[in-house]
Inverse folding.
């Protein structure tokens, strides 16, 4: 009998192996962990015990050194880890370094450099357009089909799943009000997104081509772009969202390497407009990912947004973000934008799910337009893997606490 | 005769003592320097030679440890430095650690955490409004007088003065064009700004009050927020500037501590609208700074924007930026927004100086609407000090190079 076993079909089996950073009970010390079933492997300690050269990348308090190491190293480390958790002789060596997930504290897995947020779901953009500009001829702005719209967010307030979110205060002003008022946001919302994590930097002045996406991007996580709609509405013209978003952005504790998601690659939706060459992916390998997201409030699923519906791919977003010569750094994080499918039950924000509060959701504990204090929001997701086995993407969760 | 002397009235005399980071000729090693006249003092080496306890803050490759040390340490270190450069016995000890500025390479003085850019000049905002919305009833957006409008920029592309700026490429589309085209920006501009550098972090969920500005902000620098107007115009609705700004932001090599600018404090312009309590500075000490900026293209001065005209102060910007609970980190940088005075010759961008290209500038080497390849833009500034002696703020310069 092997020293440990992951049940067959477990979404966190040896086919997955996402990376995180954890601390053991009673310790503040951080180290890289790899999830295996309901355990986390202290990957650095295992590497040291096995005399692996990858100890230098894994016995570290953050994923950044591994992120910076590049695609060849990413593949080599993954191959090594796969052997450690599947070959019986290695299994015996690493068994002491497996800790039950329930016994550890998961940390922010990497130091976030720049954080950018996109707006890449056509369904989401059309819903928002219809809600806020009901009389407009086209619910999309004229640039939407020509470039992936994005903006920079606050990297210093990216927090790991499980961190409480303090309800932000700020200015708001309804159209008829004579002056703005100040107070806690009364329209606190979520945005269900996927975040992409940059590993390999690029040089200032040198764009990154579409086809180099996998050389720079290590993996992905789940991301909740908490949004105070009332603060945002009053502040965002003309320079975009600021305090309506900057109070917190939550990411999942596990970064799933792109290498674990090969089976999930799909073609993006058909393009309705010709694309400029730097964004034209018609000759590229499929740039979409079939990720099945679930949004729950207090344990009750309210939406299941399908990531495969995103109009702009992560590779296109990377190419666009750098086409002006802006450089990448290890730890750059970019969000996909709210994921909303075509169906009402696939919308990734309460703004859309309740149609700006006009159609409240019926939850077991009462109606919701926007979030109430004490609400716990959990995004979770999985992707199809080989042989019908799911690749688990974990979850990102957060509880709203009063100011 | 003392071992070194700074000419009387020199704007970089012992009353100033701005901080930077430099490398000696032929070396990549970085260390903290303090400017004295046309020399830079290796402050860490001097501290070690004098047995100073501040060696731990100064013998470092970046200003971040000093920034994080807090106001009491900032004052103590400044007092020590003042003694080192003025007391004869100390002067002899530190003389070997003074290097001619011409012999060193100046580096980015601190690691930039988050970068935020504001929009705080009423003259600038009105000029932009009149240029782009000539038919609007009010050239300011309705929120402008109620909050300091800001957005996050790209911290990874903040570069030190002297770094070449590659002309960015991107999408642009004139209103009559059927589709966007791609190519190098043809409307490359500057924005003359002042940048504020955060030293002491704050806790997530805890706003920083107006009166705590000086506990968190260490000092200021000059900042050129390079802007590709054509890229920006096509991309910025609805989420704000992105690639039109993210290719480069240049900062001066010297960070002037707020302690050197006590004589330059002035009241901001009279407020025309009542302010919410968290922004109401009517009972505070003067929050403005009388900084005299000069903008030169290829050595020819084209504008002299007065910072004292800024409607929103740096303290108000800090209070606003954190009022939603967003936390500060050591190394956060925020720009004032383009500084434009009331007079045409005080405008801080070519957009305004040429009224969107309609009134070209006459330079000795020809007409300019926007920047041409090879143009060198230099912002410099000084502030009034005690006894009529200027406090030099140095310069931020950059040359445009073809893509």
């Amino acid at each position: 009998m092997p020293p440990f076993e992951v049940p067959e079909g477990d979404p966190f089996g040896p086919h997955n192996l996402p990376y995180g950073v954890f601390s053991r009970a009673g310790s503040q010390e951080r180290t890289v962990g790899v999830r295996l079933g309901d355990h986390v492997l202290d990957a650095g300690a295992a590497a040291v015990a096995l005399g692996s050269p990858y100890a230098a990348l894994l016995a570290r308090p953050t994923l950044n050194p591994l992120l910076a190491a590049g695609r060849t190293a990413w593949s080599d480390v993954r191959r090594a880890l796969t052997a450690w958790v599947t070959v019986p002789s290695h299994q015996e060596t690493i068994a002491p370094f497996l800790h039950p997930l329930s016994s550890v504290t998961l940390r922010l897995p990497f130091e976030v450099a720049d954080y950018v947020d996109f707006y890449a779901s056509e369904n989401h953009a059309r819903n928002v357009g219809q809600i806020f500009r009901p009389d407009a001829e086209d619910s999309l702005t004229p640039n939407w089909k020509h470039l992936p719209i994005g903006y920079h967010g606050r990297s210093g307030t990216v927090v790991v799943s499980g961190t409480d979110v303090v309800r932000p205060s700020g200015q708001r002003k309804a159209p008829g009000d004579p002056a703005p008022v100040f107070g806690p946001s009364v329209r606190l919302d979520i945005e269900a997104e996927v975040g992409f994590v940059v590993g390999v930097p690029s040089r200032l002045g040198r764009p990154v081509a579409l086809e180099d996406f996998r050389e720079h991007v290590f993996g992905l996580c789940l991301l909740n772009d908490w949004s105070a709609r009332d603060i945002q509405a009053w502040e965002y013209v003309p320079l975009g969202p600021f305090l309506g978003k900057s109070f917190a952005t939550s990411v999942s504790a596990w970064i799933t390497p792109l290498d674990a998601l090969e089976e999930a690659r799909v073609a993006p939706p058909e393009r309705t407009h010709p694309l400029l060459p730097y964004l034209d992916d018609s000759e590229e390998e499929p740039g979409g990912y079939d990720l099945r997201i679930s949004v729950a409030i207090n344990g009750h699923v309210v939406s299941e947004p399908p990531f495969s519906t995103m109009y702009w791919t992560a590779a296109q977003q990377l190419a666009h973000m750098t086409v002006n010569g802006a450089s990448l750094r290890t730890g750059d994080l970019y969000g996909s934008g709210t994921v909303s499918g075509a169906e009402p039950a696939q919308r990734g924000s309460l703004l859309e799910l309740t149609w700006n509060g006009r159609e409240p959701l019926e939850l077991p504990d009462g109606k919701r337009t926007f979030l109430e204090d004490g609400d716990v929001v959990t995004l979770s997701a999985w992707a199809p893997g080989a042989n019908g086995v799911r690749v688990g993407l974990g979850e990102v969760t957060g509880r709203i606490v009063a100011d």
Q: What stands out?
A: Chain B touches chain A through 62 residues (CB under 8 Å).
